[in-house]
UniProtKB/TrEMBL annotation:
InterPro entries: MTH1187/YkoF-like, Thiamine_BP, UPF0045_domain. GO terms for cellular component: cytosol. It comes from the Bacteria. This is Uncharacterized protein, MTH1187 family. Belongs to the UPF0045 family. Residues 4-95 form the Thiamine-binding protein domain. It holds the Pfam family Thiamine_BP. It comes from Caminicella sporogenes DSM 14501.
């Protein structure tokens, strides 16, 4: 299981507001059955099978184009641990246990 942080930024929209694009990207995420996701102030965290997540990220990247953006910049960070189960909740709990 992988955890991926994705930030998709539409450019050339004529506005500095991004929330309508973020909302449309989350509509795509809600359609996917085999992933978990969490909106953060600076991006979205997705948990699941890496191949599935990468396909979803590709769909998300297209959303701003479909909604009038002329250019899109997408940043992806991947945490893919294979020696034990990796979850968003587990990562947070690990840090909190040390505080």
């Amino acid at each position: 299981m992988a955890i991926v942080e994705v930030t998709t930024v539409p450019l050339g929209t004529g506005s500095t507001s991004l929330s309508k694009y973020v909302a449309k990207c989350h509509e795509v995420l809600k359609e996917e059955k085999n992933i978990k996701f969490q909106l953060t102030p600076m991006g979205t965290i997705i948990e699941g099978d890496l191949d599935t997540i990468l396909k979803v990220v590709r769909k998300i990247h297209e959303v701003p184009f479909e909604n009038g953006a002329l250019r899109v910049s997408t940043t992806i960070k991947i945490d893919d641990r294979r020696d034990k189960e990796l979850t968003m909740e587990g990562k947070v709990k690990s840090v909190m246990a040390k505080l």
